[in-house]
Design a protein that fits this description.
Immunoglobulin-like; six-stranded antiparallel β-sheet; five-stranded parallel β-sheet; 9 helices; about 20% strand
Length: about 350
């Protein structure tokens, strides 16, 4: 088996009891908030990481591990009943259906699933030179085709900062100010995109070196203004995420997301709406993934009247150049399929969140 590990025999009662008791131990005795089940795909498929002749099909002739599927459903059912509110997350790397749906629907019963497609596509896009991003806009838009098939969590995990990949900051293109601007842009994109958020330790203050399990994090970086800016941005993004129902009310359904502009890749600008199911609360999210400013950029909005910047990643307190917008007013001029529109100045490599006053 991969990673030098053995495979559990899920048909044995003793093995299932041991695994289930272990899961309960972490939640009951160690008071963890949840569990992440690693490499779920290796459990579900009999032929996972095996060559022809190294595995035998199930009694129906398929490659599904029926005993493992049964155990996963039983585990999630027990954990859900015994520990209501615990987060049970599947790191499942294939397109196995209904991972986060209950067993009575034919699902596996997990609460959330690692969105590895979003992770890979987003990091690949952000690692590109901004001048080349116009040719790869699909890396941003493709994920919305399946974003609501499961209850997804967006992971920037330990896997992305080890094994020679470098830190998130090191993977951003450009000089030092541009790398920090790109990292801020990534975090605003992540926090406003549908799905829960997961950020590995050290990323909240722009760890510069690849993570090393044998050493401590470089906390001394918080003495530098750029790292303090990243730290402040994450603090404000968390506050914004909790305070704006438009960002969290409909995480797992299409009701909370609406494209405004993703059809002009030449400008590397992406605009979308986040809102609750009744559209009583709306946030207009604008990204400029290009390295040049766009002044007086017209954006369609659903409501007329005054808007304010709830967040701008280019603000001084985050380490940006301080190009912000004040006195934003939407008028009854249709644009982007919306009845009203407004004009904003977009700093280079920046994300903005606008809300009605």
């Amino acid at each position: 088996m991969g990673w030098g590990t053995l495979v559990f025999n899920y048909s044995r009662t003793q093995v299932k009891n041991f695994l289930l008791a272990s899961a309960c131990f972490w939640l009951e005795e160690c008071h963890l908030d949840g569990l992440r089940v690693d490499a779920v795909a290796s459990m579900l498929y009999l032929d996972y990481a095996r060559e022809s002749g190294e595995w035998s099909p199930n009694l129906f002739g398929g490659n599904e591990n029926l005993e493992a599927i049964s155990f996963v459903r039983e585990m999630n059912d027990v954990l859900c009943r015994r520990y209501p509110g615990a987060l049970i997350i599947a790191e499942e790397s294939t397109a196995w259906p209904l991972v986060t749906r209950p067993a009575w629907m034919g699902g596996l019963g997990f609460g959330m699933k690692w969105n590895m497609g979003w992770m890979h596509d987003t990091l690949e896009y952000l690692a590109l030179d901004p001048a080349l991003r116009r040719h790869h806009q699909e890396l941003l838009t493709f994920g919305l085709l399946y974003a609501f098939n499961e209850n997804f969590i967006l992971p920037l995990s330990h896997d992305e900062v080890v094994h020679g990949k470098g830190s998130l900051l090191a993977r951003m293109p450009g000089d030092r100010p541009q790398r920090f601007a790109n990292l801020r842009l990534l975090y605003v994109y992540m926090w406003t995109y549908p799905g829960k958020k997961f950020l590995f330790m050290g990323n909240e203050f722009a760890q510069e070196q690849e993570w090393d399990f044998s050493g401590s994090l470089n906390w001394e970086l918080l003495a530098q203004p750029e790292s303090r800016g990243i730290f402040s941005l994450l603090r404000d993004l968390n506050h914004l995420y909790r305070s704006l129902s438009s960002l969290h009310a409909c995480e797992f359904t299409q009701d909370g997301f609406e494209w405004l502009d993703c059809q002009e890749p030449a400008q590397s600008i992406v605009v979308y709406l986040r809102h609750d199911s009744k559209k009583h609360h709306v946030a207009v999210v604008i990204f400029n993934f290009a390295a040049m400013a766009r002044n007086h950029y017209r954006v369609g909005v659903p409501l007329s009247g005054s808007y304010r910047e709830a967040l701008n990643s280019d603000a001084f307190q985050y380490g940006g150049a301080g190009v912000t917008n004040k006195d934003i007013s939407a008028v009854a001029e249709p644009h982007m399929g919306q009845p009203c529109s407004l004009l904003v100045d977009l700093p280079p490599l920046a994300g903005l969140v606008l809300v009605p006053c």
